[in-house]
Amino acid sequence: MEYLEFELPIKELEDQLQKCQVIGDESNVDVTEACKQIQNKLEITKKEIYKNLTPWQRVQLSRHPNRPYTLDYINAIFKDSFLELHGDRNFKDDKAMVGGLGKIGDQSFMFIGQQKGFNTKTRQYRNFGMANPEGYRKALRLMKSAEKFGIPVVTLIDTPGAYPGLEAEERGQGEAIARNILEMTRLKVPIITVIIGEGASGGALGIGIGDKVLMLENTWYSVISPESCSSILWRSW
């Protein structure tokens, strides 16, 4: 479990509670009342911290390393029944954009979303959730397939933005995002969009046009990341 700086009081109390429970398990000392007091203090501390969050702390929570990512939600919803689909049929399979078919009850859904990594190796593999043009073209291919078979689309957004590299621009990053926005407005099946973490700029909009757009708590959806906005307006980042 990782903690942000403002969550350290929670960590200290959780450590105290764990030590208290260990003492109770390994000795004949009755620590029930002491553990209960720590537990109560822990719950109060959590409420105090999370009800008084600053805007920047909410941004930090949207990037929390323990926050669930797209595949975490997909695995929790579909278990082993999810069929991941790959590739844009043009260039390659973009690992930052995942998508595929799954069932909830008797209803099939096409799930599409950006995927970040959970450690250094997987973050590099997933390009930190920043999709290339082929990622957006893969997403569009899956949406068109869903439309053909009358399957609703669910998109999960969690990205610091589309990949800004030279090679991405050479392959038409702007065109790919614009094409997705256009086609999603015309799609003949329902689209539900959920921001599950960061929703930055065109990188989010490339899969962010929906009949319903929802946001989880402590997420953000903006034309620009806070750091980039600060550097432009105040040159302070």
Description:
The chain has ten helices and seven strands. It has 237 residues and is α/β, with parallel strands linked by helices. It has helices at 8-26, 32-50, 55-62, 70-78, 120-125, 133-148, 166-170, 173-186, 201-205, 226-233; strands at 83-84, 97-104, 107-114, 153-159, 191-200, 212-215, 220-222. The model has no long low-confidence stretch (mean pLDDT 95). Strands 1, 2, 3, 4, 5, 6 and 7 form a seven-stranded mixed sheet that branches.
**Class inferred from helices and paired strands:** alpha/beta
Assign the CATH topology of the largest domain: 2-enoyl-CoA Hydratase, Chain A, domain 1
Count of spatially separate domains? 2
Q: Determine the number of helices (DSSP H or I, runs of at least 4 residues).
A: 10
Strand content: 15-25%
This entry's quaternary arrangement is: single chain
Strand count? 7
Instruction: From the alpha carbons, calculate the radius of gyration and give it in angstroms.
Output: 21 Å
CATH class identity of the largest domain: Alpha Beta
Unreliable stretches: none
- Secondary-structure element pattern, one letter each: HHHHEEEHHEHHEHEEH
Distance between the termini: 28 Å
Shape: globular
Report the major sheet.
7 strands, mixed
The overall pLDDT average reads 95
> Can you say what the CATH homologous superfamily of the largest domain is?
2-enoyl-CoA Hydratase, Chain A, domain 1
Helix fraction, binned, reads: 40-55%
CATH architecture call of the largest domain: Alpha-Beta Complex
